[in-house]
Design brief:
By secondary structure, the chain is of the alpha/beta class. It has one domain (31-339): Alpha-Beta Barrel (TIM Barrel). The chain is 45% helix and 13% strand. The chain has twelve helices and ten strands. The chain has helices at residues 3-27, 31-38, 62-69, 94-109, 121-126, 128-145, 167-184, 195-198, 225-228, 249-269, 286-302, 328-334, and strands spanning 40-44, 74-79, 113-118, 153-156, 190-192, 215-221, 273-278, 306-309, 319-320, 325-326. Strand 2, helix 4 (94-109) and strand 3 (113-118) form a beta-alpha-beta unit. It is globular. Residues 16-25 have low confidence and may be disordered. The structure holds beta-D-glucopyranose. Beta-D-glucopyranose binds next to loops.
Length: 340
């Protein structure tokens, strides 16, 4: 190659790199932009029979449109995937995968953002080591399967790491899973939360990789537990609680201060926030539950976060599937009337 040819080929390479960089930049909203697109959302189908028997689904195709028309921009799909893996090969069941394909396609048709949230968190709290290969195998199958999906599809590595999956182990596990994801999805937005049930007080134990900024940090907020989980049999000490109110100025201020602390972490670490779960269990009085739900949602919005309410159907319901109508007080607490 003579020197003129060298100059031309260098120019060509630089132009090519600039062009591909621009294309991928256009295609890759920053995680802060993703948070804006996500806005208001809801957790769906974690406990629906459709995963075992599609004909027995509570959640039907029409509900994706109902969610969109109801003023939501995002669905967080809760995946209890480990129950659908072959015990030996750890291959995900084909029928289960086709149900997930369906849920993603129907969400995208409604132009919803879709979070794929691995929700086998309880198993990890008891015995992380046994379940670690399943976590890795899950992402080894899911990441390449959806690698060509638009940026509306977001991966959440694992819901609420807890108990024996402590800060140190979680740091290792999510980094390993992230590496697997990055092999096929170098720029996909990924959601990762702190240990101890994605608790706001454990954000300082979340050390996200400096060289990866396509990450959203997530927290869950159910404080005070005595109010949000009164009568809940699955949380220690809450089953027999009842009649607990919420809504004093002090209680409202507490939420604002808690979120301001999270916001400080967010700014110091330059990571946007998804409030991935919040709500108050059905056993509380409706007027307090709606006051709480709306205050938490509005406070999150005031800090510019996205949120996904817990949950559409099953318990804490925002939608009454049996009668096919919105659970009006909770829905209006989430989506104010003049905004939809
Ligand atoms: C769990 C649910 C529980 C909710 C509130 C979720 O992460 O999957 O079983 O109802 O948190 O406690």
């Amino acid at each position: 190659m003579n020197s003129l040819q060298k100059v031309f080929s260098s120019i060509f390479i630089v132009a090519f790199l600039l062009l591909t960089y621009n294309l991928s930049a256009q295609d890759t909203p920053t995680p802060f932009e993703q948070i804006k697109r996500m806005g208001r959302g809801v957790n769906i189908i974690g406990y629906d029979p459709l995963w075992r028997d599609f004909d027995n689904a509570r959640f039907k195709e029409k509900h994706f449109k109902i969610i969109k028309d109801g003023g939501f921009q995002t669905v967080r799909i809760n995946l209890h995937a480990f129950h659908h893996m072959n015990e030996e090969t750890l291959k995900l069941d084909e029928t289960w995968l086709s149900t997930l394909d369906w849920a993603i396609e129907k969400s995208l048709e409604q132009n919803l953002m879709v979070i794929l949230d691995l929700h086998n968190f309880n198993e990890f709290g008891v015995d992380p080591e046994t379940h670690k290969p399943k976590l890795m195998e899950f992402w080894r199958q899911i990441a390449p399967r959806y690698k060509d999906k638009p940026s509306n599809v977001i991966f959440e590595i694992l819901n609420e790491p807890n108990r024996k999956l402590d800060a140190e182990l979680w740091d290792q596990y999510y980094k390993e899973a992230l590496e697997i994801i990055r092999e096929t999805n170098p720029i996909r937005t990924v959601i990762i939360g702190p240990p101890f049930w994605n608790n706001i007080n454990n954000l300082n134990e979340l050390n996200l990789p400096e060289d990866d900024h396509n990450i959203i940090a997530t927290i869950h907020y159910y404080l005070p537990m005595e109010f949000t989980h009164q009568g809940a049999p699955w949380v220690e000490g809450m089953k027999d609680k009842s009649g607990i109110s919420w809504g004093t100025d002090e209680e409202k201020q507490r939420v604002i201060e808690d979120f301001a602390m999270v916001q400080k972490w967010s700014e110091e670490n330059n990571r946007p926030i998804l409030l991935g779960e919040f709500g108050a269990y059905d056993k509380g009085e409706t007027k307090y539950r709606t006051a709480y739900t709306s205050h938490v949602a509005r406070t999150a919005e005031s800090f510019g976060w996205a949120w996904t309410y817990w949950q559409f159907d099953s318990d804490f319901i925002v939608y009454d599937i049996n009668n096919d109508e919105w659970n009006l007080p909770i829905w209006r607490a989430l989506i104010p009337k003049n905004e939809n």
